[in-house]
Structure formats: structure tokens, C-alpha cells
Specification:
By secondary structure, the chain is mostly helical. It contains three helices and no strands.
Amino acid sequence: MTWQDIAFGLRLGSAQAARQRSDRLADRALGGDEDQTRRKSG
């Protein structure tokens, strides 16, 4: 399965968008989403 296949399945505009979403979700799963932390505390 390619990033393009994933992008199509998620109805995203590009393979790059799929890859970026995957990276964000992986960071969040590992507790590395600093943006969410700032929003909660600020």
C-alpha cells in the first residue's frame, strides 16, 4: 500500500497530506504532541 492509496482512502488531497497525518498521529500516540499540551494549559 502506498501513501497515495492511503490518501485516496482517507479522501485527502495528496500522498504528502497522508504522510503528515500519519506523522502527527504517531507523535500524539507517543505523547509528543506539544501543540495539544499548550492548548490545554493556555
